Structures are given as structure tokens and as C-alpha cells.
Amino acid sequence: MEHGLNGKDDIQIKLMEEECILVDESDKKIGSASKKVCHKLENINKGMLHRAFSVFLFNSRNELLLQQRSLAKITYPDHWTNTCCSHPLNIPLELEEDDAIGVKRAAQRKLKHELGIESAEVPLDSFKYLMRIKYKSENVPADNTWGEHEIDYILIVQKDVTLNPNNNEVKETKYVDSQGLKKLLESESSGTLITPWFKLIANEFLDGWWNNLSSLNEVTQQTKIYKF
């Protein structure tokens, strides 16, 4: 077994074979590589960058759905994060770029895979594409093997949905209001694990989106790539 995968979950190892989309700094496709290759720290440190998405799903009470990543995850196990975070794949349906339709299809696919949310409950036209964020981070706890270097599409959905989480992907779920999220972020100082991209987004942008769920066009910046 390759270094970095020794002792890891067989299902998660298999998922590392999925083919992600490599992009340049302006999010133009320049190739593809396996999830494993994309997340290797040695490749990230050489500049390898891939496309990703982060879904923020709110219910009709304006509460945000969070998930705690399972202990089986190879990157960021046991971390709290936003509703769903993953990657569009290097396949025709998820490569289409008009209105980020390929990314939305990937988000729909992963909401079903991770949380058991049926596609009919989150149709493609329910996803609002807001902006893109470029960031880089190393796995926590640091292992000198894995990390993230992504251009992350932000997708907002407001729907009441039925959850049936996949235990191999998700340890726990909960809905929070803004005060509940603040308490979660503050609990990091006492040992709660939070993914770096979620913490970044929560600190920089989330309040503005949360306060404008009924008028998201006012906070939409689809041509902008924020770089951190």
C-alpha cells in the first residue's frame, strides 16, 4: 500500500481514484488527475490546482446544515464543515461550465452520496452559484502527505430536505442558526476540529450570504475569484 494510504478505509481509498479537473489560476481547465494525485502535498507545493465546490444548504427556518466528516475520511477526518464539499469530475456532464451547471450536477451527486438527499429535493435550478474562492491548506493533523489547493465554487441552496447520511462519509449532522455557528467556531479553541475552508468562508463571507438569502443576486460575484 502506498505511503499515506496505509491502514486507511478501503472505500475511501477507492474514491481517491476519481478523476478531478486540473485548472490554472483563472479556473481554465488544463488537464485532469486522480483525487489522490491532486491532494498529494508534494504536487500541491509544485502548484497543482483543481476545481471543487462547497454547498451551503439552508432550511426554511434559515438554519444552515453542517456535517462532521467521518473518521474514515483520508483528508480532514472528524472535522466539522459546511453541508457538502467535494469536486466535479472529469466527465462530460460535470465539465459543462455555463452557469456552473457541471459543478451543480456534481453537487447534486455528492449530496445524494454523502447525505442521502434525493436529487428531486435539490433540483439543479435550486442551486445558486455565488462566487469562487482559491485557497490552499495542509491536512490536519499534519501528515506531510495530504492537503488541498482548490478553486472552490460556492453554491447556496435553500430547501427542506430528508437526510439519510452515509456513515462512511459523515459522522454527524446538525442545523445551526448564526449563534450556533458562532459557538461552534469558538469551540475550536477547546479542541473542536473545523475544516480550514469552512472557517475561512465563515469568517470572510457567510454572514453576508445568510443575511441575503432572499436576495442572493445582491451578493453574487460569479466573475470573481477571491484568492487566499
Automatic annotation (TrEMBL):
Pathway entry: Isoprenoid biosynthesis; dimethylallyl diphosphate biosynthesis; dimethylallyl diphosphate from isopentenyl diphosphate: step 1/1
Family: Belongs to the IPP isomerase type 1 family.
Function: Catalyzes the 1,3-allylic rearrangement of the homoallylic substrate isopentenyl (IPP) to its highly electrophilic allylic isomer, dimethylallyl diphosphate (DMAPP).
Keyword Nucleotide-binding included in the entry's annotation: no
Catalysed reaction, written as an equation: isopentenyl diphosphate = dimethylallyl diphosphate
Domain Nudix hydrolase residue range list: 48-200
Broad class of enzyme this protein falls into: isomerase
Protein name: isopentenyl-diphosphate Delta-isomerase
Gene Ontology biological-process annotations: cholesterol biosynthetic process; dimethylallyl diphosphate biosynthetic process; isopentenyl diphosphate biosynthetic process
Gene Ontology cellular component terms for the protein in this record: cytoplasm
Gene that specifies this protein: 20214615
Database matches in InterPro entries: IsopentenylPP_isomerase_typ1, NUDIX_hydrolase-like_dom_sf, NUDIX_hydrolase_dom
Keywords of the record: Cholesterol biosynthesis, Cholesterol metabolism, Isomerase, Isoprene biosynthesis, Lipid biosynthesis, Lipid metabolism, Magnesium, Metal-binding, Steroid biosynthesis, Steroid metabolism, Sterol biosynthesis, Sterol metabolism
Superkingdom to which the source organism belongs: Eukaryota
Cofactor(s) listed: Mg(2+)
EC numbers on record: 5.3.3.2
Cited PANTHER family: ISOPENTENYL-DIPHOSPHATE DELTA-ISOMERASE
Presence of keyword Lipid biosynthesis: yes
Pfam families with a match to the protein in the record: NUDIX
GO MF term list: isopentenyl-diphosphate delta-isomerase activity; metal ion binding
